[in-house]
Amino acid sequence: MKSILVILILFITHQTWAQTDTIPAVKPDVDFFKQLSQADSITGGKVTLHGDPKIEQLMKLNLSVNRKEQAFQGYRIQILSVSSYNTNIDTLKSYTQRFEEEFPDIRAYLQYTDPDFKIRVGNFRTRIETIPALKRIRKKYAGAYPVKTVIYLKELAPVVEQDTIPLTPQELMPSL
Fold first, then answer.
1. Contact 72, 152 (CB under 8 A)
2. Which end of the chain is flanked by fewer CB atoms within 10 Å, N or C?
3. What pLDDT, in 10s, does the model give residues 133-159?
4. Which CATH number do you get for residue 94?
5. Is residue 165 domain-resident?
6. Mean pLDDT to the nearest integer, 45-58
7. Cβ distance 140 to 86 under 8 Å?
8. Is the overall model pTM greater than 0.70, yes or no?
């Protein structure tokens, strides 16, 4: 019974911390423990959990924190860091726009972290994911390097799914 509870907690924790490539839709609050204790509509079976009630409190706390944050620890590639003293913000904005023109598939962010302005690009979950983009970027921005940062879900662009065009058998095998 304890092993089932541990597996259930690991599964729920994995689902709440899992990251997806798209912005998740707002889902109504779900009380997992309440759903488990209700009878199944098909078999009539139900799960009875015997355990410390603090586990349920911990799960609810975990869900509420994740719901409020809407962010995750990720990586971006820093291409520029300059002191805010005597710096023209328009120059930095044009620098950001120029980068986005050179690399249209990578988004650039201008951030102010007292006392510096930083231009960071991309949205990556792990440092390893930055490597292909970093190789491309270093050809034009030699001092670029990956940095750990908080990435907010609202900053991510939604992934647009493309329609596929079905091919006829003649198009697949023109020699027939």
1. no
2. C
3. 999 999 999 999 999 998 887 777 665
4. 3.30.70.1070
5. no
6. 79
7. no
8. no
